[in-house]
Amino acid sequence: MARLIYFSRDYTTHDHRFLSALARTDHDIFYMRLESGNIHLEDRPIPEGIEPITWAGGRKTIRVDDLQNLVPALNVAIQQVKPDLIHAGPIQRSAYLVALSGFQPLVSVSWGYDLIIDANRSSEWERITRFTLEQSTTMIGDCNTIRQLAISYGMPDERIVTFPWGIDLELFSPTDIASVPDEQTFTLLSTRGWEPVYGVDVIARAFVKASRKRPGLRLVMLGGGSQASLLERIFESGGVSEQVQFPGQISQDQLPDIYRSADLYISASHSDGTSISLLEALGCGCPVLASDIPGNQEWITPGVQGWLFPDADDNSLAQGILHAVEQRDQLPRMSRSARALAEQRANWNVNFQQLLHAYRMTLHHSAASQ
């Protein structure tokens, strides 16, 4: 049993998933948040058994330039808790702050975008990335793409643990019988935020083009975000507004029914490690049409669980949608393959053991170096 600080950027659905699982271990878990007020936050309370830390951070959004000023407050919290290790991420935010404090052992956790996008912002962001990984005893990433990026920034391969997160396979499960979609209607589903990185504008333009040939197409777009007005303009100018539904933000308990009601899950994200939304779709047996970025390529075999299309190419996405409609008799087979893949590689309860392995490895390395 160890005393651990779980230090994250904010409190999201992903943090709730981690903390809920950690609360069931023998470890004493303390929770810190760096910021407050980001989008896509979790409305469920912090799991019972997790002790929140009140400190100078966690009250507003934080710029990377401000992190140095928070080092004294972090040190005070560390002295109060006296943790055996700190689990911190993303790399250039929470993990960077811990690295600045000099505390070890540090388990740095990549959230995907930190190594795929943030590390390339500038030479300063690259410096921060390299410094944080240099100070990290262990690093956790969710796919091989992240592992290779971490290595390129100086993290030794033997100190990286690949933990593809995963989903609750009982919650995200398919209906008993996968049937061929109706010939008159065909429902597409997008669950990503309406932000530029997720390519929802690509989905909107592709939907307009595909609908000209298949008026029976329907699109469900969950969430919200800064591109709401852009999406509205695309749908209105394309004359398809009545074919699009906007359920807004929905609870985790409602999500499985949304996936089950769709004939095809679409993701046009320009950047992802292992996408939890993608895993949820697979778990529910929903065939996938996704951008061909490396993170998606690690999961989707074209013609098996669905298809891939060239990133940012709305014409190819439109053709992919039409192809899926034409091949709808193949979707039940793809649905079964999607579920089988989720059971094989996306079981949260199984994959979570990799996180505990990373902790043990970190504590062993720390003890050996003393």
Keyword list:
single chain, 370 residues, alpha/beta, Rossmann fold, 2 domains, seven-stranded parallel sheet, six-stranded parallel sheet, 14 helices, 13 strands, 41% helix, 16% strand
Task: Outline the secondary-structure elements.
Layout: E1 3-8, H1 13-23, E2 28-33, E3 50-52, H2 71-81, E4 85-88, H3 91-101, E5 106-109, H4 113-116, H5 123-135, E6 138-141, H6 144-152, E7 160-162, E8 186-190, H7 200-213, E9 217-222, H8 228-238, E10 244-248, H9 255-260, E11 264-267, H10 276-283, E12 288-291, H11 294-297, E13 306-309, H12 314-326, H13 331-345, H14 348-369
Parallel strand pairs: 1-2, 1-4, 2-3, 4-5, 5-6, 6-7, 8-9, 8-11, 9-10, 11-12, 12-13
Helix pairs in contact: 2-3, 3-5, 7-8, 7-12, 10-13
Describe the structure.
- This protein has helices spanning 13-23, 71-81, 91-101, 113-116, 123-135, 144-152, 200-213, 228-238, 255-260, 276-283, 294-297, 314-326, 331-345, 348-369; strands at 3-8, 28-33, 50-52, 85-88, 106-109, 138-141, 160-162, 186-190, 217-222, 244-248, 264-267, 288-291, 306-309.
- The two termini are 19 Å apart.
- 45% of the residues are buried.
- Helix content is 41%, strand content 16%.
- The model has no long low-confidence stretch (mean pLDDT 95).
- The longest helix has 22 residues, at 348-369.
- Helix 2 crosses helix 3.
- The protein is an alpha/beta fold and 370 residues long.
- The chain has two domains: 3-166 and 347-369, Rossmann fold, CATH 3.40.50; 186-345, Glycogen Phosphorylase B (Rossmann fold, 3-Layer(aba) Sandwich), CATH 3.40.50.2000.
